[in-house]
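*** Query protein ***
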Amino acid sequence: MKQIVSIDSDHVKLDSFLKLVGVVMSGGEAKEIIQDGLVTVNGEVEKRRGRKLYRGDLIVFDEAYFFVIEKEETRS
């Protein structure tokens, strides 16, 4: 699965991101899979749940790929 995810702010923390995209249901579950080394950010295993994700980052978990973009402002 490949998914483009837009965020409202300049960054989002990894654990919150995993909840946002529905990979996990709780912060505790996010903490566990991150600490187990099951998530990569930009091709490297990431074990910090507070890792800040920015536009252009690629997150991979369990054969699912997520690409972070900035939320586009709606124009009138």
